[in-house]
Amino acid sequence: VVGRQEVTLHEQRLVGPVGWTQQGRSFDGAFASVSRGNLSADVGGAVLTSVNADPTGYDSFFGMIRAGVSGEGSTLDLVYLPLSDASRDRLTHTAGVYTKGSSGPLQGRAEVYLQAGTRDGQSEMAWLAGLSGTLAPEVSGDPKVTLWYDYLSGDGDPGDGRATAFDTLFATNHKFYGLIDVMAFSVGGVGDGQGLQDAALKLSVAPDAAIRTHLDAHLFLPSVGENAMLGQEVDLWGRWKVTEGLGLSGGGAALLRSDAQADLWSFLQLDANL
Length: 274
Fold this sequence. Notes:
Distance between the termini: 22 Å
Largest sheet: 15 strands, mixed
Order of helices and strands: EEEEEEEEEEHEEEEE
Number of helices: 1
Structural class: mainly beta
CATH topology: Porin
CATH class: Mainly Beta
């Protein structure tokens, strides 16, 4: 595929269209896919474009190479993402392993990524790890119980000439670190360099074939620094499939922090696929 397009990698941990936002994200580039039996690969390169892009900002050239093997209920991928941004004196290489699988009522996912290169004139060495395990018994209501843990490295000494806070690149971060979008954006992650640990318990149930409700509880910890805890967040939300191509989502969230007032947030969203 050549031209302007959305690009997605796995669950959008590192590359995604950010469909949650009004402007979204697109790439001008070329991507090709090939598969043979259980083997598959993607390769391509692109420029990030945005409706409100600053010509001197973070628009960047990046590449994506993925090669993997899939089997009965399982996937194993190797990933390499080079990123060059002259405006930030940056050349970052991100490489890692992604795997997921299922067996009966059990589902699991694991991914590890390393970053190395230069960023803002500093040498770069950072990493991310994510694990999740889900119990999904085949009973009425299709309940699911998920244990979830993410680790994003932080930078305990920004002045030492080394950038060690992991950058999630072109991710759809809203899918991972709580619905309020405070963690990893303004607190934790590369937002303030503390890194982020996210330990979560996620519950969901479908009382009707067209309705699914979710309750997520997050405990956020820094990866570096003296703070014992960044906060706790509870998200309650659901989605109703009104008809084919039309869905209604809504819910609310509360983020509790020891050093700030509680953040309360709610939303109602209509999704139409035309």
